[in-house]
From TrEMBL:
NCBIfam families, sorted: nramp (TIGR01197), Nramp_1 (NF037982), PRK00701.1 (NF001923)
Protein name: Divalent metal cation transporter MntH
Membrane topology: Multi-pass membrane protein
InterPro entries, sorted: NRAMP_fam
Keywords: Membrane, Transmembrane, Transmembrane helix, Transport
Keyword field contains Zinc: no
Cellular component GO terms, alphabetical: plasma membrane
A biological process term (GO) from this entry: iron ion transmembrane transport
PANTHER family in the record: NATURAL RESISTANCE-ASSOCIATED MACROPHAGE PROTEIN 2, SOLUTE CARRIER PROTEIN FAMILY 11 MEMBER
Length: 546
């Protein structure tokens, strides 16, 4: 009689074991044929850079500051390419995803803390997906918001279906949805006939880009830049990429095979993230060229949808003529729905990666999705119910504020994925001489990590103040500053703990490698994989924890 499987199981094997090493890749074939075989993981990663959380920041940035913040989108995209390249390389070379690699070098207690922190970050992104998906359903089918919020829970059925069709087909579906989003915004921007000279000039950062004045629409250029950066570079993408880069078969005994995997994974990632850059750039250009300057008073998805069908807000006759048919607003809602569904797939996979890596727990993807989505639905439902008796504008603003404010958790979680990633890919012990970061990658990597961490912490007081709403008092402002500084101190203290543990773990790995006289880290990590604990050991660990 077959043993009944538990819903929650012990997991200490290869990352995302069901799909690890399942995709064949050609050897000694042409560049484009080989690239096609490696294409896919980059698309799943790129989804996180064009999810509903990015839309409002980019369009509002264009409305308020014209093309000034185009350079911020470009810089964010270049930093993302660098970080994702390192994440994929770590997974391919070490045969561990980022969560596994951090947990292997840190204490159990720190692993649990980092797991909880990263779970909050994933939930924050899930709130944006719930809001985006529910609003898209409301706009397209006039479904009441409360019902639409519950319908978004039903995407777990979509996930169940996808798990049955194979990972390669999931990649193809994600690529198709990205193309839908890209088509919608290319079409709308093409009709708007933007000032391309000014748009290209905006790609060069100036002193005005990060200035604290002027304030337009309650936002300074610095706040707009921080919003775009915060919505672009997300921690769960680094965990995800380090796991799904291992879906391609690779012979770790053959250095050329590993090098090919690293090279084409980088090509795949950079191509897909370039597409994400264009989507975000098109969103900002929409804010400048599709609408009249300052015409969009409601920056929420509701306001943008209505503005695309309101001829008085649009910038030229061609757009006005097309808007009368309703196609501009409908396409916007379709793209919003596609974006939310894409993020559903990647968010669930990311959650499974961090759970298995940090706390060695594994559950079915559908159950993982159901739990995360139900938790994310709660604050959205509370927000809808609290504003149900108010005007529609109040309801729209409240949902938009909830989505933007939820991103505050990303400022906490991002340094704890970036710093360990950089330290491990800079290490000869971890990566070997051939695959450790080149000097230029190391230099730009440290600049990116320090800049993003610094900007996120610098913008934290304003993010906390945003929770109080527009009519914040002096006392509330002081209170928000105190909360922000307490959180900043906590983040710095936790970072120090992480770095100390990472250093100790790296020294321990060096000692183990030396004592076993192995020629490379591959052999040692392969041994660790073979010696992965059993379910009985998992139960024993649980008893010891209690």
């Amino acid at each position: 009689m077959a043993e009944k499987r538990k819903l929650i199981q012990y997991a200490n094997g290869p990352s995302l074991e069901e799909i690890n090493g399942t995709v064949d890749v050609p050897k000694d074939k042409g560049f484009f044929k080989t690239l096609l075989a490696y294409s896919g993981p980059g698309a799943l990663v790129a989804v996180g850079y064009m999810d509903p959380g990015n839309w409002s920041t980019s369009i509002t940035g264009g409305q308020n500051f014209q093309y000034l913040l185009m350079s911020v989108i470009l810089l964010s995209s270049l930093i993302a390419m660098l970080l994702q390249y390192m994440a994929a390389k770590l997974g391919i070379v070490s045969k561990m995803d980022l969560a596994q690699a951090i947990r292997a070098r840190t204490s159990r207690s720190l692993g649990i803390v980092l797991w909880i922190l990263t779970e909050f970050a994933i939930m924050a992104t899930d709130i944006a997906e719930v809001i985006g998906g529910a609003i898209a359903l409301y706009l397209l089918f006039n479904i009441p918001l409360v019902i639409a919020v519950f319908i978004t829970v039903g995407d777990v059925l979509v996930l169940l279906l996808l798990t049955k069709i194979g990972f390669r087909k999931i990649e193809a579906i994600v690529v198709c949805l990205i193309l839908v989003i890209l088509f919608v915004f290319v079409y709308q921007v093409a009709l708007s006939n933007p000032n391309w000279g000014a748009a290209f000039a905006g790609l060069v950062p100036t002193g005005k880009t990060f200035a604290t004045h002027p304030t337009i629409g309650g936002q300074s250029p610095l706040q707009g830049a921080l919003g775009i950066i915060g919505a672009t570079v997300m921690p769960h993408n680094l965990y995800l990429h380090s796991a799904i880069s291992q879906t391609r078969k690779v012979d770790h005994a053959d250095e050329k095979s590993v090098a090919q995997n690293v090279r084409f994974s980088a090509w795949d990632s950079n191509i897909q993230l370039t597409a994400a850059f264009f989507v975000n750039a098109l969103l900002l250009i929409m804010g400048v060229a599709v609408f009249k300057s300052g015409a969009v008073k409601d920056p929420s998805f509701f306001g943008l949808y209505q503005a695309l069908s309101d001829t008085s807000t649009l910038s030229n006759g061609v757009l006005i003529a097309v808007a009368k048919s309703g196609i501009l607003s409908t396409l916007f809602a379709v793209a919003l729905l596609a974006s939310g569904q894409n993020s559903t797939i990647t968010g669930t996979l990311s959650g499974q990666v961090i759970m298995e890596g940090f706390v060695h727990m594994k559950m079915p993807l559908w159950l993982r999705r159901l739990v995360t989505r139900l938790l994310s639905v709660i604050p959205v439902l509370i927000c809808v119910m609290l504003t149900s008796g108010k005007s529609s504008i109040d309801e729209h603003v409240a949902l938009n504020d909830l989505m933007n404010n939820s991103q505050v958790f990303l400022a906490f979680a991002l340094p704890f994925s970036m710093l360990p990633l950089l330290l491990m890919t800079d290490s000869v012990t971890e990566m070997g001489k051939k695959f450790k970061n080149a000097i230029w990658v190391k230099g730009f990597g440290w600049f990116s990590v320090l800049a993003l961490t610094g900007l996120n912490l610098y913008g934290l007081p304003d993010q906390i103040k945003a929770f109080y709403g527009d009519g914040i008092t002096v006392a509330q402002s002081t209170q928000a500053d105190i909360i922000a500084w307490v959180l900043i101190v906590a983040v710095v203290a936790l970072l120090v703990w992480t770095l100390v543990d990472m250093h100790k773990g790296n020294e321990r790995l060096k000692t183990e490698l030396a004592s076993e006289h192995v020629s490379s880290t591959y052999e040692h990590l392969a041994k660790l994989s073979r010696e992965a604990g059993s379910e009985a050991e998992f139960d024993k660990e649980a008893v010891e924890e209690r």
